[in-house]
Amino acid sequence: MNRFNLSHGPASAPRGKCPGSHKETRRDSRQLLVASALLGAALPVCQATAQESAATEQLRGWSSIVTRQVFEVADNVYTAVGITLSANSMIVGDDGVIIVDPGHSPTLSAEVRREFEQITDKPIRAIIFTHGHGDHFRGASAFADEGSEIEVWARANFGAETRAAAEAGFVSGGAGLSGGVRPADTQGGDLSPEQTVQFNGPPRPMSPEERATPVRRVPPTHTFTEERIELEIAGVEIELVAAPGETADHLYIWLPGERVLFAGDNVFHTWPNVYPLRGTNRSIRDWIASLDKMIAEEPARVVAGHGNPLMDNAVEQLTNRRDAMQWVYDRTIEGAMRFMTPDELVEYAALPEQFASLDYLADYYGSVWGTVRQIYAQEVGWFDGDPLNLHRENPVRQSERMAELVGGVDVLLARAQEAMAAGDPLGAAQLAQHVTRLRPDDPEPKLLMADALDALGEQTLNAPARHYSFSYANLLRREAEQQ
Ligand SMILES: [Zn+2]
After folding, report:
1. How far is residue 304 from each of residues 7, 265, 289, measured CA to CA in Å?
2. What is the mean pLDDT of the chain?
3. What is the mean pLDDT of residues 38-57?
4. Which of 111, 218, 278, 449 is most buried when burial is the number of CB atoms within 10 A of its CB?
């Protein structure tokens, strides 16, 4: 992953239903709207009490799992969490230390280094990148002093996902892949810090000066193409093992002496992000095979790419993760062979209770429903078997048919408003979207659709889907303001 900002989307200003409502904050108005939606009734807006959705509460719980601390994972193995966006580790050898995943920001990664220097003053001999996402490597200069001869290890295809995106033309300024191909941000990067709940993020937002500080790149000096290599660095026996999953360039690090495994982002406290909404292909089959290899090591402890290390039941967690992913894969393929469409498969391949009850497999960052759709897209392709999908119409023509059916565009808009008032934001958004197509210069349906998307986002557990809903709502409001 690149960034966790669990946001609360800004809501539109109240629409004048309440005397004195101008004193409400934007957040208050959104909460009232959501509270109304949750209660399933068209409550007078002024009487609804502000309350968060169950999804938001669960996300806050997820966020609170990680606090700033350094774990002693094993003798001579330490992992810092809650300082940079990723988990950053130090392995202490005879005459030096090895850093695993230095973090995303030279400033915050320097804080990690200071924490580690409280533990030992041995020099840094090597850095290992588990994969080529910026939240794991951009802070490397905090550990690699200029002129030092530190070994920097990664797989030979390091940066494969970023390169693939760049080759496809998806380059989004300094934001890496966070923008991707989408019109709005899937990671919440455009939402204000006040509207965010951090997961394993920095304890404070980076200042403008920190953001503006140029990052000195620390590229890999040593790479490998083999399935597995064995190294000895600072007297420590280390194995680096190819493990494609969240990215094609992933590796895991195995310390046979301590029986500690550094899993990178192939393991952390969420359903795996098999398909990032920003638009990238990831192979669930590779990911499952990599988990099989990790399980076979029988690790005592597993250091996750984000959040706290798995200290007690590492093999059990790895096995459940692997089995749940395999179950979703098998169920999706089985249903597809019975001519079920992706919309049907999302229900058919929902997790059974034995996996659904495990919090570390909840849809916090990846989602089961997104995984089902991705499996179908990868293994079957875009055609879902519906013959009408061979004869699709332009969206505007579809909306014209809908307006003709219900008796005109004004009726569509009125029905959308009624759905919103009745606590059905999905219905409201679907109807309002038709009106935005038929009246692209009218701000009213855009503002209504924005309110509906905020309400939908608020009820969504999956952080990227939530972010995209909020960010898209903001996009619609900006368009409406300009009209
Ligand atoms: Zn990450």
Report:
1. 23, 7, 17
2. 85
3. 50
4. 449
Shared domain check, 270 and 209: yes
pTM of the full structure: 0.86
pLDDT band at 183 (very low <50, low <70, confident <90, very high): confident
> How is the chain split among helix, strand and coil, in percent rounded to 5?
45, 15, 40
pLDDT digits (tens, 9 = 90+) for 335-362: 999 999 999 999 999 999 999 999 999 9
Residue 268 Cα to ligand 1 middle (Å): 9
If asked whether residues 91 and 3 sit together in one domain, one would say: no
Residue 375 Cα to ligand 1 middle (Å): 22
Tokens 């290899």 found at: 293
Å from CA of 458 to ligand 1 middle: 24
Residue 127 Cα to ligand 1 midpoint, Å, equals 16
How many whole angstroms from 265 Cα to the centroid of ligand 1? 5
Cβ–Cβ under 8 Å, residues 449 and 419: no
Are 198 and 253 found together in one domain? yes
- List the strands of the sheet with 301-304, edge to edge: 228-233, 236-242, 251-255, 260-264, 301-304
Q: What is the pLDDT of residue 188?
A: 76
Q: How many Å separate Cα 320 from the centre of its chain? A: 20
From residue 198, alpha-carbon distances to 8, 266, 310, 345, 457 in Å are 11, 20, 20, 32, 17
Measure 415 CA to ligand 1 centroid, in angstroms. 43
Q: 72 with 89: CB under 8 angstroms?
A: no
Listed in sequence order, the residues at least 6 apart from 357 whose beta carbon sits closer than 8 Å to its beta carbon are: none
Distance 2 CA to ligand 1 centre (A): 5
Q: What separation in Å is there between the alpha carbon of 246 and the centre of ligand 1?
A: 9
Domain that holds residue 241: 66-304
In a shared domain, residues 97 and 142: yes
Please spell the DSSP secondary structure of 135-149, one letter per residue: HHHTTGGGTS-TT--
Quote the ligand 1 centre to 326 CA distance (angstroms).
23
Of the candidates 265, 353, 364, 261, the one whose C-alpha atom is nearest the C-alpha of residue 314 is 261
What's the start-to-end Cα distance of the chain, in Å?
36
- Does one domain contain both 413 and 469? yes
Q: Are 294 and 303 in contact (CB under 8 A)?
A: no
400-426: per-residue pLDDT in tens? Answer: 999 999 999 999 999 999 999 999 999
Residues 296 and 253 in one domain: yes
Query: Around Cβ 377, how many Cβ atoms within 10 Å?
Result: 14
| Residue 426: CATH number of its domain | 1.25.40.880
